[in-house]
Amino acid sequence: MNKTSYGSVFINCPFDSDYKSILYAIIYTVYHCGFIPRSSLEQDNALDPRLSKIEKLIEECRFGIHDLSRTEISNNGLPRFNMPFELGIFFGAKKFGDATQKNKVALVLERQKYQYQQFISDLSGIDTKAHDNKPETAIQIVRNWLKISSNRAKIDGHIKIVNDYNIFLENMPDIVKKLNLDINNLTYTEYCILIEEALSLNML
User: Under DSSP, is residue 62 helix (H, G, I), strand (E, B) or coil?
Assistant: First the structure.
């Protein structure tokens, strides 16, 4: 059975507070372009191992956004390799999967161009995109990639998406209040609900 959704985008990015502005911009852009963002954070079942959730999501998503900008040394003196690992699973699905899996398309993001070569040289030759820790740049990159990869005609230009995103951020406190949520402690799913609510109210 074909479980892959051509409208689903696997989000393989950091989830910490320092990265939130980039993550929020990416998720918003995916929605604005008519796709559905998918993440391991959308489920919270202690009986379902994290890796199993990731494998299932990768299987179900044709598109994948992978940000390798946060592999620096952490407080314990060790690098963070979750994102490169999940990118590897995505590559493996495309290489060794069935005909559906072979249609996968990936976007690899970095903070600075070709920084990945310092810690994962096996990826040499791939065309990464650098967002420079700027949400507006991330929006443009993700929008352009989805437009080219999907060949969908009805995707707005990045300038409109950036403008709409800024309007969304301005309206976000009112939407949060309406839904009785805490703007400082939003879960991944709650943030997605905010965007969906804004869409339904034509606030984007």
Answer: strand
Q: What does the block give as tokens for 189?
A: 């799913």
Say whether 75 sits in a helix, a strand or coil.
coil
In this structure, what token pair is assigned to residue 177?
A: 């209040």
Predicted confidence (pLDDT) per residue in 29-62, tens digit: 999 999 999 998 887 766 678 888 999 999 999 9
Phi then psi dihedrals of residue 128, to 5 deg: -85, 165
Q: How is the chain split among helix, strand and coil, in percent rounded to 5? A: 50, 15, 35
CA angle 25, 30, 31 (to 5 degrees): 100
Burial of 169 (0-12, 13-18, 19+ CB in 10 A): middle
Question: Does the residue 199 lie in any domain?
Answer: no
Q: How many residues does the chain have?
A: 204
| Structural domain containing residue 56 | 5-156
Residue 171 belongs to a domain: no
pTM for this predicted structure: 0.89
Residue 169 belongs to some domain of the structure = no
Q: In this structure, what CATH number is given to the domain that contains residue 112?
A: 3.40.50.10140
Q: 183 in a domain, yes or no?
A: no
| Structural domain count, the chain | 1
Give whole-number Cα distances, 86 to 54, 65, 81, in Å. 8, 10, 9
- For 90-133, the pLDDT digits (tens) are 999 999 999 999 999 999 998 877 666 555 666 666 788 999 99
For residue 73, give both structure tokens. 């040394």
